[in-house]
Design a protein that fits this description.
Layout: E1 7-12, H1 20-33, E2 38-43, H2 45-48, H3 55-72, E3 80-83, H4 89-98, H5 103-107, H6 110-116, H7 125-139, E4 145-147, H8 153-169, H9 171-176, E5 188-190, H10 225-234, H11 253-266, H12 270-277, H13 282-308, H14 311-340
Parallel strand pairs: 1-2, 2-3, 4-5
The structure holds tryptophanyl-5'AMP (TYM).
The site of tryptophanyl-5'AMP (TYM) has 25 residues, from strand 1, helix 1 and helix 7.
Length: 344
């Protein structure tokens, strides 16, 4: 086996309510990466069950994320789209990483603290070791680049630590297996653009999230044009006009959020958006944002709905994707077994 080649991996959980944050922070970036890299995009159903999922809903949501990938422009023929549970090497490698990562590392994960809340004694063991499975997702393909939203930064740092510790712990065995510079690459997070952290429409200091009980806090990818326009109209703002420079958005979280969303949807920088809209009031900016959002998201939602009517097609895409994924992950895991000392 040769050195790691540049390769992109990323994942999205099938936990329902795919929203604008997922789209701008992750999925649009996945689409862009296809031009320059070999890409692997995974619907992470093993991660989803770290909190309870109703089995029928899990299957529906897995197809829905797949439909969103395809509708947004991910090419499943040229790249790889599949669901995690169809490729056993994710869980197998995660076990090895459970034995490489340290309790202290995982104890520092802020997302576990947020998700487990006050009742951490009652959360699943899987929720605690969640980041080890993420590291396994990426490293089962020896992937080098990982496009994600800002909230995944800490998890990706942990993936790098795990790769590094594996390379150190098994350095001798890795060299004996013929690798000069370690076995796993240290995967690089790609977190960039104007919408790496899309905020709630009801509170500009809180992340837009699937689990927010208020549907008005987010735009779902399956929302129709009326719902999109209504949610933008009702989004919280401040009374001031838009500034002409990004500096003027400091301490104005709601304004900064809407401008960032506009820039990301338009494919321009925040500076450019403010050049056009600076000095204007929200009463004119919001309708412009609603028109733009409907123009960009409407066709994706429609295409998702159309695809969701053909389950067999989606399941076929996932099956073919899983076969392709296994041809990469299986030989990597064979090497890991050799390095660790498992008899094969
Ligand atoms: P998940 O399913 O919560 O979110 C999927 C992607 O959407 C991004 N995202 C956001 N970006 C901007 N603003 C927001 N408000 C927002 N909310 C979510 C996330 O950063 C993510 O990129 N643990 C991951 C899934 C995962 C993964 C992986 C990612 C599993 N294995 C390996 C990368 C590599 C998660 O829960 O994402």
């Amino acid at each position: 086996m040769t050195k790691p080649v540049p390769r992109v991996f990323s994942g999205v959980q099938p936990t329902g309510n795919l929203h604008l944050g997922n789209y701008l922070g992750a999925i649009t970036r996945f689409v862009d990466m296809q031009k320059s890299h070999a890409c692997i995009y995974c619907v992470v159903d093993l991660h989803a069950i770290t909190v309870w999922q109703e089995p029928k809903e899990l299957a529906h949501n897995t197809r829905e994320v797949t439909a969103a990938f395809l509708a947004a422009g991910i090419d499943a023929d040229k790249h790889i789209v599949f669901n995690q549970s169809q490729v056993p090497q994710h869980a197998e490698l995660a076990w090895i990483f459970n034995c490489v990562a340290r309790m202290g590392w995982l104890n520092r994960m802020t997302q576990f603290k947020e998700k487990a809340g006050k009742d951490s004694e009652n959360s699943s063991v899987g929720l605690f070791s969640y980041p080890n499975l993420m590291a396994a997702d990426i490293l089962a393909y020896r992937a080098t680049h990982v496009p994600v939203g800002e909230d995944q930064k800490q998890h990706l740092e942990l993936s790098r630590d795990i790769a590094q510790k594996f390379n150190n712990d098994f350095a001798k065995s890795i060299r004996e297996a013929g690798y000069e510079d370690g076995f796993f690459p240290l995967p690089e997070p790609l977190i960039s653009g104007p919408a790496t952290r899309v905020m709630s429409f009801k509170d500009g200091t809180k992340k837009m999230s699937k689990s927010d009980p208020s549907d008005l806090s987010r735009i779902n990818l399956t929302d129709d044009a009326d719902a999109i326009a209504r949610k933008i109209r009702k989004a919280k703002t401040d009374p001031d006009a838009l500034p002409s420079e990004p500096d003027g958005l400091k301490d104005r979280p709601e304004a900064a959020n809407l401008v960032g969303i506009y820039a990301a949807l338009e494919g321009e920088s925040v500076e450019q958006t403010l050049k056009t809209h600076g000095g204007g009031q929200f009463s004119s900016f919001k309708p412009a944002l609603a028109d733009l959002a409907v123009a960009k998201l409407g066709p994706i939602g429609e295409e998702m709905n159309r695809m969701m009517a053909d389950k067999a097609y989606i399941d076929g895409v996932l099956k073919t994707g899983a076969e392709k994924a296994r041809t990469i992950a299986a030989p990597v895991y064979e090497e890991v077994k050799k390095i660790v000392g498992f008899i094969r």
